[in-house]
């Protein structure tokens, strides 16, 4: 069965966002020429997005502006439609942080206000797990790894050149979720549920994802349910 944009717009998201989500889940949809043009991924990133992609961390407000395609440092007010979208994205990100799906730390900004900041790599992984398009150019650290010559297996694994799909998933999850962990700040640790959800979204079985999440969990972290219900 093929669906149309009208069936999904009532949920409050714009056509470009709907199409991206449906494509991720391989749900067929009828598109007219205007929407196809809007969702084409070939448009270049504006300069302000390229500059933002160089920052290792993003505040929730900066991330929301990036999703909306609005420069956070540009003067002016958001339209009513963008204000509504802003609230939706802000709620989505804050809930993800509160449930432990997206690692973030609370800081005091220059104005003396408290704000949540997340690692850019953590946001990349969270977007992938939710079927969302990361709104900025890929962080430089990801590009540099991708452009390096492929490391020998002996350099990647202490036991030589043996590798399996499970080991590749283990390395992937370690990079995506534990590379930003600070033992002095336990809140920077991802929850097992977040790691499991990410791994299953890229093809791991639930059993394998659960095992990998347990293996990666830092030894000095207490286990059990966090406030908010996440593990």
Question: How many domain units?
Answer: 3
Gross geometry: globular
What is the count of DSSP helices, taking H or I runs of 4+ residues? 12
Low-confidence blocks of residues:
33-42, 143-155, 225-229
CATH class annotation of the largest domain: Mainly Alpha
Main sheet strand line-up: 3-5-4
Helix-strand sequence:
EHHEHHEHHEEHHHHHH
Average of pLDDT: 76
Question: What keyword list fits this structure?
Answer:
three-stranded antiparallel β-sheet; two-stranded parallel ribbon; mainly alpha; 5 strands; 49% helix; 231 residues; 12 helices
Polypeptide structure, described:
It contains 12 helices and 5 strands. By secondary structure, it is mainly α. The chain folds into 3 domains: 43 residues, no CATH class; 93 residues, Arc Repressor Mutant, subunit A (Orthogonal Bundle); 83 residues, no CATH class. A 3-stranded antiparallel sheet has the order 3-5-4. A hairpin with a 5-residue loop joins strand 4 and strand 5. The protein starts with a strand and ends in a 15-residue tail after the last helix. The relative contact order is 0.10. The C terminus is likely disordered.
Topology readout:
Blueprint (H helix, E strand, L loop, with lengths): L2 E2 L1 H4 L5 H10 L4 E2 L2 H7 L7 H6 L4 E3 H9 L11 H19 L5 E5 L5 E6 H11 L9 H8 L5 H4 L8 H14 L13 H10 L4 H11 L15
Parallel strand pairs: 1-2
Antiparallel strand pairs: 3-5, 4-5
Helix pairs in contact: 5-6, 7-11, 10-12, 11-12
């Amino acid at each position: 069965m093929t669906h149309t944009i009208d069936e999904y717009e009532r949920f409050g998201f714009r056509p470009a966002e709907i199409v991206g989500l449906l494509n991720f889940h391989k749900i067929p949809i009828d598109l007219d020429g205007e929407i196809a043009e809007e969702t084409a991924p070939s448009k270049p990133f504006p300069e302000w997005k390229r500059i933002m992609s160089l920052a290792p961390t993003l505040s929730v407000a900066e991330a929301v502006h990036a999703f909306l395609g609005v420069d956070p440092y540009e003067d002016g007010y958001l339209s009513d439609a963008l204000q509504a979208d802003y609230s939706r994205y802000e709620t989505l990100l804050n809930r993800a942080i509160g449930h432990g799906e997206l690692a973030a730390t609370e800081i005091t900004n220059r104005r003396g206000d408290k704000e949540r900041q997340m690692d850019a790599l953590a946001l990349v992984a969270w977007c992938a797990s939710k079927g969302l398009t990361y709104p900025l150019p890929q962080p430089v650290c990801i590009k540099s790894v991708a452009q390096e010559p492929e490391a020998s297996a002996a350099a990647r694994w202490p036991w030589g050149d043996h590798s399996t799909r499970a080991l590749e998933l283990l390395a992937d999850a370690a990079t995506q979720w534990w590379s930003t962990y600070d033992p002095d700040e336990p809140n920077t640790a991802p929850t097992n549920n977040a790691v499991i959800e990410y791994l299953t979204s890229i093809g791991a079985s639930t059993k394998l994802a659960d095992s990998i999440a347990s293996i990666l969990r830092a030894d000095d972290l207490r286990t059990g349910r966090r406030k908010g219900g996440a593990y």
